[in-house]
Amino acid sequence: MNPPKGPLGIIAGGGGLPLRVAEAVATSGRPVVVAVLEGQGDASAFTAYPSQSFRWGLAAQLLAWLKGHGVRQLVLAGSVSRPSVLSLRPDAAGMKLLARIGRAAYTGDDSVLRAVMGVLAEDGFEVISAQQVLAGLLPPAALLAGAPPDDLARADIQRGIAVCRALGLADVGQCCVVQQGLVLAVEAIEGTDAMLARCGPLHREGPGGVLVKCVKPGQSRLADLPTIGPRTVDGAVAAGLRGLAFEANGTIVMDRDATIARATAAGMFLLAFDPADFKEGTTA
Q: What's the farthest any 2 CA atoms get from each other in the chain?
């Protein structure tokens, strides 16, 4: 297979993933062009590359700018907080783009991503995943830190997987916190960090809870996969949790060494799980 020609475009949201992708691609010798979503990504992080910030309502201008730089292959990377429709303030071209996305703009994140990627494909772009650029982002099933979860923690993980599946089917969120069988919190538009911040006052006496993250059923693997990193561990510690469990081969682990080190130092388990190992009736 011939290597891709032309620059790789990155539509950058928040967090460290977009910059890691840019650095990896640039190191390989391929040019990088970065369109930063205003209010989401940090434009100052991409001064080494052709880059420009765009607000949501100027999405059509964003795509035209990428095309003007010869971009035909794109990575959608980083966290994004969806704005309200009224705050978009689209220009005329943006209105046409919004019309092409259609009703998905009023539904869940995965529905919107699928609609956006359909529009990108129609416009001649190919969307690839961050994990196609960065090896090792998605750990296989393994215990990465701490002692193996005991029976109570395994029961909480099993419960959390069921809750995450229900959330995912409704295209709402990708994670929850379960303690002793009780669902303390579920993720919605606020994101994982804010969800964890809500959990502290809800903590029960006895063994701490578990953060569980899963890929939504049928979710595209090209963008918006569940993600954890050192901040996630810090938030879990502050919430009094005793472990993080996330779907193997489907969850991005940012700064893996630092994430594992923080979990180890906190005495927490860090488990990349195969959902098949937590089906009803399975044992450790």
A: 59
